[in-house]
Amino acid sequence: MSAESTGQNEHYLRVFRRRFRTWRGTRPFWAGLFVLLSGFPIMYFPYADLQIGHLTLAMATTGGAGSLIIGVLLMVLGVSLWFQRHVQTFAGVAAILLALVSIPVSNLGGFVIGFLLAMVGGAMAVSWAPGKAEQPDAVTRKDDADAPEPAAAGATNGAGGEFDDLSGTTPTNGTNGRHSAG
After folding, report:
1. Among residues 7, 22, 42, 103, which is most buried (max CB within 10 A)?
2. Residue 162 lies in a domain
3. What value, to the nearest 5°, has the Cα angle with vertex 61 and ends 58 and 66?
């Protein structure tokens, strides 16, 4: 056993924290947390009873069932953002729409608390993009060294010194208009 090996001597909490940070970095964690937390006030306040001294103020509204459905859907969307990364755009848009629907249905979106959490979490989910893995600089592939470089847009193509049309789609760079929108 080497004195430099730290794999077996690390504390389990340090290992758990490192693994959690790695897991959290590969998905829209904070967006999922905000959307998950937004479901609680939207779901709770229509069923809450406030007590002011001996006076009980019942908050039960006709939108109670709608508030319950919106709150549960927001919580499910928050959990799905954590465990199913590929639905991040759908879940973000759905969270924003449910937040907007919660304004008239459930006491101004859980007294604006749930509404704001869902809007921020939905916007974060829509805008999230996975990080790019770092690639080593010194490693070059053998195939890349032999491949000719594509012609730059606006440069002369090798056949007669003519200029291309600045779209980068000439026979010299091998694109020939494939995968173009027009």
Report:
1. 42
2. no
3. 135
164 found inside a domain: no
Q: Is the pLDDT of residue 154 over 80?
A: no
Distances (CA, A) of 33 to 40, 93, 134: 12, 15, 27
- Please list the alpha-helical segments (H only) found in the chain: 12-25, 29-44, 64-83, 88-105, 107-111, 113-127, 142-146
Phi and psi, residue 8, nearest 5°: -95, -15
What tokens appear for 166 in the block? 């600045």
Residue 98's CB is within 10 A of a number of other CB atoms, namely 26
In angstroms, the CA 102 to CA 100 distance is 5
Predicted structure pTM score? 0.64
CA gap 119, 77 in Å, rounded:
13
| Structure letter (DSSP) for residue 47 | G
pLDDT of residue 83: 93
Residue-number span of the structural domain to which 38 is assigned: 28-49+63-130
